[in-house]
Design brief:
Layout: H1 2-7, H2 19-34, E1 40-49, E2 55-66, E3 70-72, H3 74-84, H4 87-108, E4 115-118, H5 121-125, H6 129-140, E5 147-152, H7 153-158, H8 162-172, E6 175-181, H9 188-192, E7 198-201, H10 203-207, H11 213-228, E8 232-235, H12 241-249, E9 254-256, H13 266-274
Parallel strand pairs: 2-4, 4-5, 5-6, 6-7, 7-8, 8-9
Antiparallel strand pairs: 1-2, 1-9, 2-3
Helix pairs in contact: 2-3, 4-6, 6-8
The structure holds ligand C2E and magnesium ion (3 copies).
Ligand C2E is lined by residues 45, 60-62, 73-75, 78, 91, 94, 118-120, 150, 179-180, 203, 236-239, 256-258, 263.
Domain EAL: 24-277
Organism: Massilia niabensis
Protein name: EAL domain-containing protein
Length: 283
């Protein structure tokens, strides 16, 4: 609308600045202050062993709630933060907070075996990520093997420094998961050189697993690949018992999804899993 009004002789914004553009700018400005204003927080989603139902870890998922905008999805604000570079501050805050939370649960009597934290390409390409991880582990006294960093295939493929970073992580004892696996373009030959621990089958393949034979074939291929490369495989976005049964039948024993639990606040995770007798059977 701003555009057409512009042609009529007046305009409030740059010619290509429509309502969406204005909202974007406003959102970017608000996002910059979000950490200091305490608007950023984490939810945690359980990862479980399908057969026993026991908790094998959680994934930290960042949340932003702003008085003006309400709650904004990370699908919206993470790409924005990546463009503005603000992702580095968010990412650093997320990593520290997630590792601290492990200590709080430990003290409360809930042992969450692993904390998975997402990293964006901007964080890795900056080259300061390995020292940051080491610093956070030291500061929070979290054992390195209890931290697992998640990167997508594109982070690995498009970042010059990724290889060095991945090897540094491995040397520290920190785990590495490839997120959204199957949606990117990583070559298997390349992947084979990397000390990767986990492949996460993308939710898009799980969704129609029992209905779409292509998705089914892809899921099975990823499970097989994991087996032959001695990696563990976690299925993302598992929502139904049918999907879980399919996965188990094909040798994938780990899952994350609404069937087992939505991302929740730390207190809620403690309530749901802290009383669970299965916690004592954690290997
Ligand atoms: P992701 O890392 O692949 O995270 C999984 C997403 O799937 C989460 O969305 C989660 O809430 C959602 N999900 C989990 N189980 C189910 C299910 O059964 N059904 C459906 N429909 N969805 C399910 P969320 O929290 O909206 O996060 C979206 C993406 O935003 C993440 O995808 C990740 O790429 C990014 N993200 C989230 N937190 C962070 C962060 O701290 N740092 C960075 N760099 N990216 C983050
Ligand atoms: Mg993830
Ligand atoms: Mg994913
Ligand atoms: Mg994703």
């Amino acid at each position: 609308q701003a555009k057409s009004r512009g042609r009529n002789g007046y305009q409030f914004y740059a010619p290509d600045m429509d309502g969406e553009g204005v909202l974007r700018l406003r959102m970017e400005a608000l996002l910059r202050r979000a950490i200091e204003r305490g608007e950023i927080f984490l939810h945690y989603q359980p990862q479980v062993d399908i057969e026993s139902g026991r908790l094998i870890g959680v994934e930290a998922l960042v949340r932003w709630t702003n008085p003006e905008l309400g709650s904004v999805s990370p699908v919206r604000f993470i790409p924005m933060a990546e463009e503005t570079g603000f992702i580095n501050q968010i990412g650093e805050w997320v990593l520290l907070e997630a590792c601290r939370q492990m200590g709080r649960w430990d003290e409360a009597g809930l042992v969450v075996p692993k904390m998975a934290v997402n990293l964006s390409v901007r964080q890795v390409e900056r080259g300061a990520m390995a020292p940051q991880v080491a610093r956070v582990l030291a500061e929070t006294s979290l054992a390195p093997h209890r931290l697992q960093l998640e990167v997508t295939e594109s982070v690995i493929m498009n970042t010059g420094d990724a290889l060095a970073f991945v090897h540094e992580l491995h040397a520290m004892g920190v785990g590495l998961a490839i997120d959204d696996f199957g949606t990117g373009y990583s070559s298997l030959a390349y992947l084979k050189q990397l000390p990767v621990d986990v492949l996460k089958i993308d939710r898009s393949f799980i969704k129609d697993i029992a209905l779409d034979s292509d998705d089914e074939a892809i899921a099975i291929a990823i499970i097989q690949l994991g087996k032959s490369m001695h990696l563990s495989v976690i299925a993302e976005g598992v929502e139904t018992e049918e999907q879980a049964a399919f996965l188990l039948r094909h040798g994938c024993t780990r899952a994350q999804g609404y069937l087992y639990g939505r991302p929740v606040a730390p207190g809620e995770l403690l309530q749901e899993w802290g009383q669970d007798e299965r916690r004592n059977t954690v290997a």
